[in-house]
């Protein structure tokens, strides 16, 4: 079982190291031919507008969109979440997404004063699935998107209290799509990578 990591831009290496810790093989994806034989794919953090452009220039956008629509498990983090969303607010007009996740996201939605911050989350569903305790899940947010709306088919795995007083979903899953607004690859906590590896193995 090999998981592809979209390697056009962003924190590719950190995801590869995270899966290596779990003894899960990964391979970089740069060209359409690299999609062959993958059991799952990661869309890393980076810059969603740049990733959108590079996906087009590398001619990966259509074939990658097709395998995701076909049910290949996909894990998007931060910019990767933006790429998966149904709709993007405050995006660039020419920015494209795969629309695989029934969520509307606001790019850089946590605003200037909180461009980057760390938090600790609770993720009881993940803990139960992994048969691990629901200890605090460290989460690093870097110019992160806010999930503004999540459709009824979207499972919220973790949320964060929002400035408006409600709660923002920050880890979500819909069928074969897993996505986080934060960067689990930048901490030592492997619970999200473990859950994705399980989705892939299934
Ligand atoms: N703000 C970036 C975007 O819109 C995401 C930042 C990140 O991935 N750390 O794509």
What would your notes on this structure say?
The radius of gyration is 15 Å and the shape is globular. The strands form three sheets. It has a seven-stranded mixed sheet with strand order 2-1-3-4-12-11-10. A hairpin with a 2-residue loop joins strand 11 (167-174) and strand 12 (177-180). The mean pLDDT is 96. The chain has a single domain, classed as Class I glutamine amidotransferase (GATase) domain (Rossmann fold), CATH 3.40.50.880. It contains six helices and twelve strands. The longest helix is centred in the last third of the chain and has 11 residues, at 191-201. The protein is an alpha/beta fold and 202 residues long. Bound molecules: glutamine. Glutamine binds at residues 45-48, 78-79, 82, 107-108, 142-143.
Quick structural overview:
The chain is α/β, with parallel strands linked by helices. The chain is built from six helices and twelve strands. The N and C termini lie close together (11 Å).
């Amino acid at each position: 079982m090999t998981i592809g990591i979209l390697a056009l831009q962003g924190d590719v290496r950190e995801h590869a190291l995270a899966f290596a810790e779990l003894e899960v093989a990964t391979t970089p994806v740069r060209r359409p031919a690299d999609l062959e034989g993958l059991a799952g794919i990661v869309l890393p953090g980076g810059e969603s507008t740049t990733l959108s452009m590079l996906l087009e220039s590398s001619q990966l956008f259509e074939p990658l969109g097709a395998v995701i629509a076909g049910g290949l498990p996909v894990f998007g983090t931060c910019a990767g979440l933006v790429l998966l969303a149904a709709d993007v607010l405050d995006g660039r007009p020419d920015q494209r997404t795969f629309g695989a996740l029934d969520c509307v996201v606001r790019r850089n939605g946590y605003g200037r004063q909180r461009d980057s911050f760390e938090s600790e989350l609770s993720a009881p569903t993940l803990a139960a699935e992994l048969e691990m305790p629901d200890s605090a899940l460290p989460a690093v947010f870097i110019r992160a998107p806010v999930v503004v709306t999540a459709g009824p088919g979207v499972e919220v795995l973790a949320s964060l209290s929002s400035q408006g007083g409600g709660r923002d979903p920050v880890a979500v899953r819909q069928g074969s799509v897993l996505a986080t607004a934060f960067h689990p690859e930048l901490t030592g906590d492997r619970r999200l990578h473990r859950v994705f590896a399980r989705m892939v193995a299934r």
